[in-house]
Amino acid sequence: xxxxxxxxxxxxxxxxxxxxxxxxxxxxxxxxxxxxxxxxxxxxxxxxxxxxxxxxxxxxxxxxxxxxxxxxxxxxxxxxxxxxxxxxxxxxxxxxxxxxxxxxxxxxxxxxxxxxxxxxxxxxxxxxxxxxxxxxxxxxxxxxxxxxxxxxxxxxxxxxxxxxxxxxxxxxxxxxxxxxxxxxxxxxxxxxxxxxxxxxxxxxxxxxxxxxxxxxxxxxxxxxxxxxxxxxxxxxxxxxxxxxxxxxxxxxxxxxxxxxxxxxxxxxxxxxxxxxxxxxxxxxxxxxxxxxxxxxxxxxxxxxxxxxxxxxxxxxxxxxxxxxxxxxxxxxxxxxx
Length: 337
What we know:
Layout: H1 2-17, H2 32-51, H3 61-69, H4 72-75, H5 78-98, H6 105-116, H7 128-155, H8 157-167, H9 182-206, E1 215-216, E2 219-220, H10 221-227, H11 252-258, H12 276-281, H13 309-322, H14 331-334
Antiparallel strand pairs: 1-2
């Protein structure tokens, strides 16, 4: 019994301290190189936007940047402060309550291997191009899985109630990334695990059992590149890739518009890195080069009411309890593109 209590206290303490050291974790958007790249790219994007004349040329150049994106009214907004509190509470509760119930890409690969077979050992050392192919296909499967999961969160009424937590943010900072209900996080974890697990099993079974992906500092190399701008998805700095690339890649501007409740934006831009999934699904809204003005939030009358961690955790369950599934849809979930 004492051993169980010790392990529980140790694990809880570790989870409580881990958020404070997340800048050292390669798989987090708050990893220090990604924080630095966010600030650098934001400043370059701002300078480019200013040079294009899309902003008021009479205002001081960098003073306006700091007033817009690094001000107290943004980072100490009530919605931002809730993001910080929710981040720490979720970092402790999610691994303890939901984490043990999740399955990983490796478990999917192992399950498929037990059902359909898996080579005992690699036939030969994989070539460089084999590793490149696996790395690219793994990334495509991962991005597709995230798109599917995100679309389910918008299109299935009862799941939307949990995804509303994320869309209830009134302002965007990189910490808004972590404003996600545990049910939301579970969906976003399991479906990409399924798609990448299938790809991995196919490579193990039919190509080479010793295959491995190309990594950079311990993280998938392609995901690393996209993570350099990942924090800008949840910040008001406008970064659009232009009319051509915007039809193939999801820019930070795409995702900022995803948080809009303007009729022209409802339910748009559900992808994370590749825009092709939104194009095929009919939810792509190509952002213009110049910053677009829009209102963000839920647009269902509850904006400004999500103010406590308790509400973020419990309100989705209460909404499902009080209303039948057929009545739970909102404009964000039913937008017609």
